[in-house]
Amino acid sequence: MAGDQLQVLNALDLAKTQLYHFTAIVIAGMGFFTDAYDLFSISLVTKLLGRLYYTKPGALKPGTLPPGVSSSVTGVALVGTLAGQLFFGWLGDKMGRKRVYGITLILMVLCSVASGFSFGSSPKGVMASLCFFRFWLGFGIGGDYPLSATIMSEYANKKTRGAFIAAVFAMQGFGILFSGIVSLVVSAGFDHHYKAPTYEDNAAASTVPQADYVWRIILMFGALPAALTYYWRMKMPETARYTALVAKNAKQAAQDMGKVLNVELEAEEENYGTQIHFFWFILQRICSPPWPSLIWNNFYMKDVFSAIGWIPPAKTMNAIHEVFQIAKAQTLIALCSTVPGYWFTVAFIDIIGRFAIQLMGFFFMTVFMFAIAIPYQHWTEKANRIGFVVMYALTFFFANFGPNATTFVVPAEIFPARLRSTCHGISAAAGKAGAIVGAYGFLYAAQSKDDPSKRDAGYPAGIGVKNSLIVLGVINILGMLCTLAVPEPKGKSLEEASKENVDDQDEEV
Question: Which Gene3D superfamilies does the protein's record reference (predicted)?
Answer without folding.
Answer: MFS general substrate transporter like domains
